[in-house]
Amino acid sequence: MKPSKLLRHLNAKHPGVKDKSLEYFERKKREHEGQKKFMRATTSIKENALRASYLVANRIIKAKKPFTIGESCPPLKTFAVNF
Ligand SMILES: [Zn+2]
After folding, report:
1. To the nearest whole percent, how much of the chain has pLDDT over 90?
2. The overall pTM is greater than 0.70
3. How remote is the CA of residue 19 from the centroid of ligand 1, in Å?
4. Overall average pLDDT of the 64-74 stretch
5. Out of 30-34, 36-40, 62-66, which region has the weakest mean confidence (pLDDT)?
6. What torsion do the CA atoms of 47, 50, 51, 57 make, to the nearest 10 degrees?
7. What spacing in Å lies between the alpha carbon of 81 and ligand 1's midpoint?
């Protein structure tokens, strides 16, 4: 965004912070970067868990046994823990 338009946006949409120092905005930026990193980390953990869940369910389906087999079948237990 052009600096002039950015300034207009700041004055029009965020009048409460228009007089804040440069340090304030730099700190906000660092906080935002930290939140982004945190979001990325937690999202990838969930994706790994989802993937493990899918792979275990897929093996159970391929075995053509009831879903409760996951609790009693040693190879599947090991598979799930190793993920
Ligand atoms: Zn804004």
Report:
1. 40
2. no
3. 15
4. 63
5. 62-66
6. 180
7. 45
Q: Which two tokens stand for residue 5?
A: 């338009």
Ligand 1 centroid–CA 40 distance in Å is: 23
CA of 77 to the centre of ligand 1 (A): 50
Mean pLDDT of the region 2-15: 93
CA–centroid distance, residue 36 to ligand 1 (Å)? 18
What tokens were used for 23?
Answer: 């340090």
Give which of 35, 1, 27, 34 is closest to 10, Cα–Cα. 1
Instruction: Provide the 8-state DSSP code for 65.
Output: S
Measure 79 CA to ligand 1 centroid, in angstroms.
48
DSSP 2-15: -HHHHHHHHHHH-G
